[in-house]
């Protein structure tokens, strides 16, 4: 990714964006006239972000996942499982479970929202919109970066809803506001790295439905085979081995450490960052190359 | 093909694209002179879209060279993209956005300023009679509106070369005429256009020169009137209510002494009289003549040579597209 010449518009928000430069095109760079400058690139990304935002405005149902999922999952787990997970069904356990669940579900929000990017890219190709973009004098990566920026925005919406529902149901962070911001940032970082995997899926599969199907298959084991919903202590050894390396476990533990002020912080944060950077470094170049070459 | 010395906006030499075993484009040479309209006529699967996709840098050729406005498709794709506009089955607009938002976005992507993009969007919507629908999402547009917006979208950057890939495939005849009118206006402004089509009539209406391709190869090329002369024109088909009147009808037409009426023929099997059409006036005269003579008509239709007939006339063999079972009706020429 050393050939990248473009930066993401908000570098704090989209650390993966800087890998998607226009300078690594397979062909030799042409004359200066053909090059796309940084400013032009930002303008293109801006126009495409606007497009993706307008799509949401036109089709508000596409925000359902970000708005409803955190509410439904929170209520479902807190009130259906919350009391029982503690053991004796007392409401004190439920309150404790809220403390456990809300930070854990932040990463799950990032992951579930990221999933939608694959279907969107797939649809753009099928409907011919992508060919219009690709026949225009813009860096081909700007289409992907714009999409990522919007998806990260959607993740932040989902996390905000999640935290709000949590606070309304007894979630307390005891003044760890900075920790909360850090946890949100970590979630966005991890979510951004997942985007590339789902973009890759969207480029590989033939239909949007197939993308969704496969995405779900990937998602379910990762979400439940983690420390998101319950501490992995009671799981059998082989499963525990899986949850121990599952990045969602690290992110959940990191968010708990940061927001509740208890448990280990440095280790889980480090592992989350390693996972995020690792996933990006491996999948982003493949996704971008595949995007450029796709016919 | 010999041409006068003018600049070629598009120069294609020996272009090849294979998909596995399929030779989608198999050695095509093509010149489009600046300010002219080149039609590329061929059946489904002839390689028209593959050709256009290579010329718009969406596909890498496997062999040969192609230059558009002097830029090589392989070595200078970015410069090339600045000079082209693409409209077709595959290059589309965003259905969820309004017409205006689509055009504004394309303006911004083409490095126009915000105010320039706004002006250009307004201007083109006006020009393609879409002002009223400007704020509606494209998914609510009719087929014709949608194609007009596609045209507007490809005109935003004032392209040096415009590709129209089957601009009217799937449209009803009235909408097709609408789109043709718009394309004719674009052509009248001196734009260079590369048009692909499955319809001889469309090529005839819009193009000056024509290249006929089949299975990725050129099978005929030349000026449209020359090719048309080989192929033959429209035919009027009249079905009398009483099949017994076929011969009387042919006789009446032959005696009328109008242009081309000596060529009227009766087909007893289908119960139809066919008359070659030489002009709109003659067509009108024939229809009113039949009325004056008191013929009761069950059906009346004009018939264009099908693509099969065009291929047959130009090459002596049928086109190789999948639905080869079209009956080859005789073209009275």
TrEMBL record, chain A:
Q: Where is the chain membrane-spanning?
A: 66-85, 97-121, 142-168, 180-203, 210-230, 269-288
Which GO terms fall under molecular function for this chain's record?
A: ABC-type transporter activity
Which residues does the UniProt record annotate as the domain ABC transmembrane type-2? 61-294
GO terms for biological process? response to antibiotic
The ranges of region (Disordered) come to 1-32
Write down the superkingdom of origin. Bacteria
Primary subcellular site in the record, as a coarse category? membrane
Stated membrane topology is: Multi-pass membrane protein
What keywords are annotated for this sequence in UniProt? Antibiotic resistance, Cell membrane, Membrane, Transmembrane, Transmembrane helix, Transport
What GO CC annotations are associated with the protein?
ATP-binding cassette (ABC) transporter complex
> Where in or outside the cell?
Cell membrane; Membrane
Q: What family does this belong to?
A: Belongs to the ABC-2 integral membrane protein family.
What name goes with this protein?
Transport permease protein
From TrEMBL, chain B:
Q: What is its EC number?
A: 7.6.2.2
Q: Return one GO MF term.
A: ABC-type xenobiotic transporter activity
Q: Please tell me whether the keyword Translocase is annotated for this protein.
A: yes
Pfam families from the UniProt entry: ABC_tran
In what way does this protein cross or attach to the membrane?
A: Peripheral membrane protein
Annotated ABC transporter domain ranges read 10-240
Q: Where in the cell is it found?
A: Cell membrane
* Highest taxon above the source species: Bacteria
Protein name (Swiss-Prot/TrEMBL): ABC-type xenobiotic transporter
């Amino acid at each position: 990714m050393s050939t990248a010449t473009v930066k993401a518009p908000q570098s704090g928000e989209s650390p993966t964006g800087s890998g998607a430069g226009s300078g690594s095109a397979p062909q030799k760079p042409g004359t200066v006239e053909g090059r796309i400058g940084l400013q032009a690139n930002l303008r293109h990304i801006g126009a495409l972000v606007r497009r993706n935002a307008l799509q949401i405005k036109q089709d508000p149902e596409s925000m359902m996942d970000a708005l409803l999922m955190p509410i439904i999952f929170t209520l479902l787990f807190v009130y259906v499982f919350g009391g029982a997970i503690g053991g004796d069904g007392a409401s004190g356990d439920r309150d404790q479970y809220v403390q456990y669940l809300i930070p854990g579900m932040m990463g799950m929000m990032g992951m579930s929202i990221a999933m939608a990017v694959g279907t969107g890219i797939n649809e753009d190709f099928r409907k011919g919109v992508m060919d219009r973009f690709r026949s225009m004098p813009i860096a081909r990566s700007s289409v992907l970066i714009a999409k990522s920026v919007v998806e990260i925005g959607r993740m932040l919406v989902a996390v905000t809803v999640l935290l709000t529902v949590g606070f309304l149901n007894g979630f307390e962070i005891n003044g760890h506001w900075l920790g909360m911001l850090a946890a949100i940032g970590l979630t966005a970082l991890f979510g951004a790295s997942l985007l590339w995997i789902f973009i890759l899926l969207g480029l590989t599969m033939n239909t949007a439905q197939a993308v969704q199907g496969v995405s779900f298959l990937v998602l379910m084991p990762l979400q439940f085979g983690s420390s998101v919903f319950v501490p992995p202590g009671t799981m059998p050894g082989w499963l525990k081995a899986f949850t121990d390396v599952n990045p969602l476990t690290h992110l959940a533990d990191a968010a708990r450490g940061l927001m509740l002020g208890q448990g280990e912080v440095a280790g889980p944060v480090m592992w989350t960052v390693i996972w995020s950077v690792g996933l990006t470094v491996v999948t982003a170049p493949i996704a971008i190359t595949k995007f450029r070459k796709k016919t | 093909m010999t041409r006068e010395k003018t600049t070629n906006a598009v120069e294609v030499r020996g272009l090849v694209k294979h998909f596995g075993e399929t030779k989608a484009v198999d050695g095509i040479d093509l010149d489009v002179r600046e300010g002219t309209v080149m039609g590329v006529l061929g059946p489904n699967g002839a390689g028209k879209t593959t050709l256009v996709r290579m010329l718009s840098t969406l596909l890498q050729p496997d062999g040969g060279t192609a230059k558009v406005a002097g830029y090589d498709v392989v070595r200078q794709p970015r410069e090339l993209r600045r000079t082209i506009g693409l409209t077709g089955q595959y290059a589309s607009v965003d259905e969820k956005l309004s017409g205006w938002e689509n055009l504004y976005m394309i303006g911004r992507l083409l490095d126009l300023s915000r105010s320039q993009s706004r002006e250009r969007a307004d201007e083109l919507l006006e020009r393609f009679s879409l002002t009223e629908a400007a704020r509606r999402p494209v998914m609510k547009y009719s087929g014709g509106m949608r194609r007009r917006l596609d045209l507007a979208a490809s005109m935003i950057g004032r392209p040096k070369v415009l590709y129209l890939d089957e601009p009217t495939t799937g449209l009803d005849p009235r909408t097709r005429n609408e789109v043709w009118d718009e394309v004719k206006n674009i052509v009248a402004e001196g734009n260079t256009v590369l048009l692909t089509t499955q319809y001889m009539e469309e090529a005839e209406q819009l193009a000056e020169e024509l290249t006929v391709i089949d299975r990725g190869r050129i099978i005929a090329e030349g000026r449209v009137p020359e090719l048309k002369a080989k192929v033959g024109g429209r035919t009027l088909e009249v079905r009398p209510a009483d099949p017994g009147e076929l011969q009387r009808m042919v006789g009446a037409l032959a005696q009328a002494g109008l242009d081309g009426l000596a060529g009227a023929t009766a087909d007893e099997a289908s119960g139809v009289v066919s008359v070659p059409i030489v002009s709109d006036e003659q067509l009108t005269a024939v229809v009113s003549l039949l009325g004056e003579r008191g013929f009761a008509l069950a059906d009346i239709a004009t018939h264009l040579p099908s693509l099969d007939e065009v291929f047959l006339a130009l090459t002596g063999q049928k086109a190789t597209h999948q639905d080869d079972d079209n009956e080859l009706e005789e073209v009275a020429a």
